Amino acid sequence: xxxxxxxxxxxxxxxxxxxxxxxxxxxxxxxxxxxxxxxxxxxxxxxxxxxxxxxxxxxxxxxxxxxxxxxxxxxxxxxxxxxxxxxxxxxxxxxxxxxxxxxxxxxxxxxxx
Amino acid sequence: xxxxxxxxxxxxxxxxxxxxxxxxxxxxxxxxxxxxxxxxxxxxxxxxxxxxxxxxxxxxxxxxxxxxxxxxxxxxxxxxxxxxxxxxxxxxxxxxxxxxxxxxxxxxxxxx
Lengths: 113, 112
What we know:
The complex is a heterodimer.
Chain A: E1 4-7, E2 10-13, E3 19-25, E4 31-38, E5 42-49, E6 56-57, E7 64-68, E8 74-78, E9 87-94, E10 103-104, E11 108-112
Parallel strand pairs in A: 2-11
Antiparallel strand pairs in A: 1-3, 3-8, 4-5, 4-9, 5-6, 7-8, 9-10, 9-11
Chain B: E1 4-6, E2 11-14, E3 19-25, E4 33-38, E5 45-50, E6 55-57, E7 60-65, E8 70-75, E9 84-91, E10 100-102, E11 106-111
Parallel strand pairs in B: 2-11
Antiparallel strand pairs in B: 1-3, 3-8, 4-5, 4-9, 6-7, 7-8, 9-10, 9-11
């Protein structure tokens, strides 16, 4: 099993450009998450999807949209990138197991100039 | 007040030392607690869950004090490979406990 995969690993955008970050998991998990991690801020939840067909806002959703394409895939879209969106983006998934453990992808390092 | 607070460190310790980290959380209704480990420029990975009765996994011991709302992680006989950032994580109450809140992490450096 590959676990949680993310593409691309690195990306440089100019202000105003758009892009979609892809995430897929092969663990048959119901819930999926998008986080961003900035120095001194910890991981902050952008959006999550508790199950296929549902999405909800997290702590910092402004400037982002998501799509839960199917049970495996959860994408994050930046419609008009801003320098403040320079960050490391992590996708995660989890089962409905009681301990709520989340499994993370390797991350996407995004720079917006 | 942050929902989850940790001392950012760094904690610089010699190999073989015992080191302890604490973490406090603000929401008394929090349900589940974890320690994650994050290596430089890598994704976070679960180190261990934290149970009310305390739990141990090899050289690692985690404790939960619900009354005082803090969580601790003790690492005995530190190894060079233990050098990493340790994230304290608490499950959210909203959404049926569907969301995790992360501390900013405590950096550990184990030296020869």
